[in-house]
């Protein structure tokens, strides 16, 4: 018989503190999600409420063809200026590697809870690896239906020594191949801002810290009441995301008053072999608002477990972030203040997901 999780504390201990995660909850045989996972009505995701707009993926191999380069670069810039989300193909990350990553994620989460719990915050043998569930469970009224393992990159040797055996080789290869792609995209985005001076060192600083996550969303008995991940934008520079074929990732197209369009959620359908790219808050800040960090969220599904594997690229915590001075001069105003990325990060991880409110922290209140 499934254990009772009517008592909030016993549920929290089981899922969060003891590391059983949502996977442990599902494996215990629950027929209905516990109250603590029930989202307020406005946060629930109605599948039928979203547009399924198949935005053509951008073929990055064309960047190497002089006749096509400018058109592709323009598509990247346009996507960063509008939705902040796009998919890429022929990105240089081997397709077999993408398959191996999804397998590795399934294998990691299929392990018994005690094998994963060794990486829980506070007991993990390495500060580079953290296993957990939801986003910041201590701060959330309703928990997110997701388990994850995070692997922070410092150097190859430390990654191979500390990252979990099931994931380390493939995650490291993914990080390297994807970072090369991210740098190419940043070159395009910075050129468009006229930021050509010291570009290589600027790009290195923008991707100075990297982290690969493996997310696991177990099949959920009540997808209509829960979220896999709540509405949020990423805090960093660019995120590369591998999703499997299950679907459920949504991005918000902002209201466009000039075009008479209301805000709407668009489903980002899985495209075999493609990777999703999304603009993070750091690029919105750097571009003084020209590039838009993408508000996104994830639905749960009752049919099958889903995995996704993001690579987050961010500046190092000691790095300053702020709008490019030449853009402030053109705009006559700095929409964001200059701050240490570490401060931005602490604020981001100190609160439950709440759309793009993370950006308020960097807002220049004197404008
Ligand atoms: O699973 C996904 O598709 C998105 C994951 C995500 O937004 C995150 O890990 O921050």
From TrEMBL:
| Reactions this protein catalyses | (E)-feruloyl-CoA + 2-oxoglutarate + O2 = (E)-6-hydroxyferuloyl-CoA + succinate + CO2
What Pfam family is a match for this entry? DIOX_N
**Cofactor field:** L-ascorbate
**Under the GO molecular function aspect, what terms does this record hold?**
2-oxoglutarate-dependent dioxygenase activity; metal ion binding
- Origin: domain of life: Eukaryota
Which class of enzymes does this protein belong to? Answer: oxidoreductase
Q: What is its EC number?
A: 1.14.11.61
Give all residue intervals belonging to the Fe2OG dioxygenase domain.
202-315
Gene Ontology biological process terms, A to Z? coumarin biosynthetic process; response to molecule of fungal origin
Q: Which InterPro entries match?
A: DIOX_N, IPNS-like_FE2OG_OXY, IPNS-like_sf, Oxoglu/Fe-dep_dioxygenase_dom
Recite the UniProt keywords alphabetically: Dioxygenase, Iron, Metal-binding, Oxidoreductase
Pathway(s) the chain acts in? Phenylpropanoid metabolism
Family assignment from sequence similarity: Belongs to the iron/ascorbate-dependent oxidoreductase family.
Output this protein's name.
feruloyl-CoA 6-hydroxylase
* Species this protein is from: Abeliophyllum distichum
> What lineage is this protein's organism placed in?
Eukaryota, Viridiplantae, Streptophyta, Embryophyta, Tracheophyta
